[in-house]
Amino acid sequence: MLARSYSWEETVVGEYGMAHFSDKGGSKGKDYCIFFNSQWARLPQDLNKASRLPTYDLTPSVLCSPSDVPEGGFPNRIPMVMRGNCTFYEKVRLAQINGAKGLLIVSKDRLTPPAGNKTQYEEIDIPVALLSYSDMLDISKTFGKGRQVAMYAPNEPVLDYNMVIIFLMAVGTVAIGGYWAGSKDRKKRYMKHKRDDGAEKQDEETVDVTPIMICVFVVMCCSMLVLLYFFYDYLAIWVIAIFCLASSVGLYSCLWPFVRRLPFSKCRVPENNLPYLHKRPQIRMLLLSAFCIGVSITWVVFRNEDQWAWVLQDALGIAFCLYMLKTVRLPTFKACTLLLSVLFVYDVFFVFITPLLTKSGESIMVEVAAGPSDSSTHEKLPMVLKVPRLNFSPLALCDRPFSLLGFGDVLVPGLLVAYCHRFDILTQSSRIYFVACTIAYGVGLLITFVALAVMQMGQPALLYLVPCTLLTSLAVALWRRELPQFWTGSGFVPAIVLAPINCTQTAGPQKEEGPSAKSEPQTAETADRSEDASPRPPQETAPAEKDEDKDKSN
Predict the structure, then answer these.
(1) Average pLDDT, stretch 363-386?
(2) Is domain 15-152 classified as CATH 3.50.30.30?
(3) Which intervals hold domain PA (predicted)?
(4) Cα separation, 321 vs 308, whole angstroms
(5) Catalytic residue among 347, 532, 547, 551
């Protein structure tokens, strides 16, 4: 989760504000981001209290010497000059001496706070702020020569309303993915469905995570993050391409269970020798594949359209997370603890420790997730859920127009939730582990939001999510006295195979059942069998058949 409202350079605090430009009549206006230092002069918090003053376009000059000042000076105006060649103090001092009521310095580089010393701050009483060169070009194009500007800096809200949307998306994805993963695992163990194509079989395959796989995965994550930090512009496009491919597969996996229930387009491709089509897939499978690929390509083409492209990115991201939660399986609580603990350290290190190691003092995780401000391509990595800020503030306009939550903050605790649901089903514990772990995830996410609001800086969400989910699952296992089974995954031995055989029913003469016959009491096992009227798989009835043969031979 990432958000910030301040930057630091040489212990100088810079604050984000807004410059409201409008025509002379004030009928049309637009806000632009500015970066200022309140030690020169403070800005009003309300636009209505800010003075609207005409600008003076002096961008061909850097305003470093008296010769740069036009004849007559800047009486009751706010000049716009280029950055460079002299200090901020020299520029603002010339502007103030010549009657300016403020100063806008246009910068082609990254916006940094206009610094000075205590004596210089006391001498200057007009506001000075930095404006980006791209915004200056847009101002020149949008407004005429008689434009006016009003500089102000409204307070940042404690928490943005978009956090509610992120919370619902994250908790919903974890709950649905965990439930789906457990249900799929149950069907694989207790039922043997007939398949009519290879794609459905592939859809049911899962990957059990081993400790070696966990170590390799964490090393790869660390290496990739560091490489992205140093070679962001070269690797970002590859990450986008991988996300496009993976999200297409995830979207197909999520939509296929619904499409397969449609009563049309079941016909197959004619016999052929074409690659990928020689198995004669159904027409509806091809149509669904084309749709999923089309959605991903649409996002790639319009990924920088901030107004609506984030909706496609979130939809594809949720589909990818659901697919991973269904496919990747942690076989034991021991594996869950190892994975979550290692990634807990990884997340904390790259958010809180790396600022002490980098020259800029920036967190590697924050810089990579939000995109470096000095990136030449200005690409943003899509491995996050993103929602635009709903509150009107300088932070939304300048630094971080979106609130972000990484896929890892959904997937990592989600794998534990999926494990809990599978354990619930196969030990018939009324889904208490699943519900408790899902609620713990929601509580951990709320704690993350609170920490974000209090610290006003990017937070490693796993710092709060991992303890909440792990400790809650552990507490439930201790309360139910099932910790040994929960830790080793021994509860996953199919209960049907281990069911005791009723010898009175498998050997000797059988009583005829009639209306007056007493029904067998329904236990948890027989209730589970009665959920599906289909015959049991051969491997599950084999032990019973062997016992019958032994009884007969005796």
Answers:
(1) 85
(2) yes
(3) 62-138
(4) 21
(5) 347
